[in-house]
Amino acid sequence: MLPYILRRLALIIPTLFGIMVINFALVQFVPGGPIEQIIAQMEGEGDVFERFSGAGADVGRSERSDDSYRGARGLPPEFIAQLEREFGFDKPPVERFFGMMWNYMRLDFGTSYFRSIGVMELVLEKMPVSITLGLWSTLIAYLVSIPLGIAKAVRDGSRFDTWTSGAIIVGYAIPGFLFAILLLVLFAGGSYWQIFPSRGLTSSQEVWDQLSPLGKVLDYLWHITLPVLASTISAFATLTLLTKNSFLDEIRKHYVMTARAKGLTEKRVLYGHVFRNAMLIVIAGFPAVFVGVFFGGSLIIETIFSLDGLGRLGFEAAVARDYPVMFGTLFVFGLIGLVVGLISDLMYVWIDPRIDFETRET
């Protein structure tokens, strides 16, 4: 197992490097960089995209067009040159890329262009929202989908299986943002009941400070109920059907018929023999599912419930061309994603020691 782990760890470096190269190269052709943003704001146009008609200057050519920025002819060249030096755009793209990667190797992710705060500090500031949505959504999905999938497999073809399949498909077909709006209308004072709050992760600071420890826990759970439900609804279908199909595959194998022939109870056969094999693919994929939900925070869900998480952070950084935030988070999340892939493989071995990655080609 150790040689396999070392090979996978060695592959992380070129894979991560390739991810950064591709994204950095693509960004060079996107119209409107940080300097264009500043120019647009100084000239009172609000956002750089309001001044682009389709043929904008690109960041790689580098943010410039014939030694001047679009719309910047009224600004002194010395001021533009100073902005270039501050943002590092006075250097060639290749030099900027390798300088950025060298800083990342030293865990220096820089400072946001427009927020005057370190990238990692900014990520840690937004992380409670993403942890809330990612952790609770994943746990609820697993706690509901696994028992439901087992029940559907045992009752395959029954009326229960048919009706639950219909309900699951309908839930999967409803977009998360539409379900979130429905929850707001029904339970957050939209048109019917005012049961849950419609915004925030907790109550206001004044109210929060006066609550007891138990009161703070209840207040937190009260606030996250609707956004967690909205972000979880679409996860039920895939996980439930995956569990059902895994159980059906195992139930039809010869070792199950042998166990039944020996007189074992159906419960003993199901949970003593089938469960471990059927749950291999479901449980081993837990780290990847959690990280996928965690780092892929729903921008729309966060916006609807006024939650300031990593989803909104990524969107705002892309719109503002805040490159340190964009590339710093991409590097960190890409690294974590690759490590989680390795952890998922190790979980397969932990759940089923019969799996041997030593003979697997990497």
For the biggest sheet, the summary is: none
CATH architecture annotation name of the largest domain: Orthogonal Bundle
Structural class assignment: mainly alpha
Helix content: 55-70%
**According to CATH, what is the class of the largest domain?**
Mainly Alpha
CATH topology of the largest domain: MetI-like fold
What coarse outline follows from CA principal-axis ratios? globular
Q: How many strand segments?
A: 0
What is the residue-mean pLDDT, rounded to a whole number? 77
CATH superfamily of the largest domain: MetI-like
Cα end-to-end separation: 12 Å
Query: How much β-strand is present in the residues?
Result: under 5%
What series of H and E elements makes up the topology? HHHHHHHHHHHHHHHHH
Number of helices: 17
**Radius of gyration, taken over Cα atoms and rounded to an integer in Å:** 26 Å
How would you describe what is shown here?
By secondary structure, the chain is an all-alpha fold. The protein folds into 2 domains: 2-119, no CATH class; 122-176 and 233-351, MetI-like (MetI-like fold, Orthogonal Bundle). Helices cover 68% and strands 0% of the residues. The protein has 17 helices and no strands. Helix 6 runs antiparallel to helix 10 and helix 7 crosses helix 9. It is globular, with a radius of gyration of 26 Å. The two termini are 12 Å apart.
